[in-house]
Each structure stands twice: as structure tokens, then as C-alpha cells.
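User: Okay, second chain of the day. Same drill as before: sequence in, C-alpha cells out.
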Amino acid sequence: HTTKTAWEVNLKTSVELYTIWEETGVTNSLKTIDPNLFDVIQDIMDDKRDEYSDWQEAQGED
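Assistant: Same drill. C-alpha cells below.
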């Protein structure tokens, strides 16, 4: 069984991808198709955004 991903995605890249999903309507479509999966993904996206924001603050970035 695999318990880790094969590679680590850059945190900033993840946050940018989530923004693209939202701006292009992908998340709205997912919410319509599978609200439970949407909730899980939304939680992950929120956590990654918080993590990125904390990292930026630690680096002294905006």
C-alpha cells in the first residue's frame, strides 16, 4: 500500500491551482455533482491556503 504521494507539490503551486479551479467554475460544478466531495476538497483548499498564508508571514511576504 502506498501511503505517500510520489512527489511533493509546491505549496504556492497548489494554492494557485485552487484559485484557477474556483475562477473557472470547477469547484461550483463539483459542488453540484458531489457535494460531499466538494466539502472535503474545500477543507483541503482552505487548509493549504492557511498554511501558505502562515508561510508568507514567516517569510515577511505579503
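The chain has one domain: 11-59.

User: Thanks, on to the next one.
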